[in-house]
């Protein structure tokens, strides 16, 4: 088990002391509504309990931010020192990972407490009027201060996260991931918290305010499930790509670069975001069928025999079969199957021609050939980018779709392209051009 570095422990200690100092004035303030503080803290703790122990099996946690509306409602209802206290019970009873679960809970309590206190301070300074009343006369003027408070919550929490991560990983803040997250979710949480605060101050009181939480929980749970599924999809794709790279080191990294080039083409064509993801995955996985080609053929020194070339030309069909059972790939399977078809109908495996070739496959075919030509491998040097684009233009209309070639040319001329060395092995096999045309990966 990896121990938590001393620098990270020092940051956590400092944050806990800072949160304690910010909350201390509440102890001597007779104006603090302790009943509201206790109820909000209890609600937040109750919401966090499912993330701990065996209860998580029946009520899976939905991720950080699930109950930020409770904390932001506290920021709108309470003075800053009291608002700091609301996050503590829920953070201390919630789930925590190893190593150092107690330290992690203390960190979460301090981080969320400081963020909630900052949101309360911003809201108190910007809201119209001297009191924290939330009646009809306060709208719409209260919306801007509430959104500003939500952004303050986001900023303080993100900066604290970046500082402790930098201390734990010994890298500068923002070096491995963006320093600031998207503020949009926090603004949504802020509006939900404002709704809770308005209902809390209404004649219906706290019971009506708590009715905001179930739909927030369900929406956050759905959102978290989507992200877990997306992460699982990305892990599946990475595993497949790594398997191909291990089997065919001469084209290491080729799939990811073809995915990037495919996205350049698709963006230039004005395709929507869903289509961009489709062509990216198709480009990344286009050679997955090489897993079905014997290693001795892929790594052979010298030119392939006709029989060996026919074996290699089966890799689109192998790839189609390999990903057949991966439901989220959808149209990607067809692009994998047909990325070696040619516009004039002389390609493989089915000899499709023109518009009969799926659009994503035509995109990947151009991206594949472009990266193959511009990558230095152990058996040949890379062509210059301009020369590779000229070669693609020469073969447009026979081997490649001219639209795709023009789109790639415009995108590369505007954004540039980083050529790559795809193998560090010293084996000097002969170049392996694609059949009757431009070399392909």
From TrEMBL:
Supply the Pfam families for this chain: HD_5
InterPro entries, A to Z: Cyclic_di-GMP/3'3'-cGAMP_PDE, HD/PDEase_dom, HD_domain, HD_GYP_dom
Q: Which domain of life is it from?
A: Bacteria
What PROSITE patterns does the entry give?
Answer: HD, HD_GYP, PROKAR_LIPOPROTEIN
Start and end of every HD domain?
251-373
Membrane-spanning parts: 67-88, 109-126, 146-168
- Report biased composition (Low complexity) as residue ranges: 426-441
The residues forming the signal peptide are 1-23
Record-linked CDD domains: HDc
The HD-GYP domain covers 229-424
Keyword line: Membrane, Signal, Transmembrane, Transmembrane helix
> Which residue ranges are recorded for the region named Disordered?
419-441
Q: What is this protein called?
A: HD-GYP domain-containing protein
The organism is: Streptomyces sanyensis
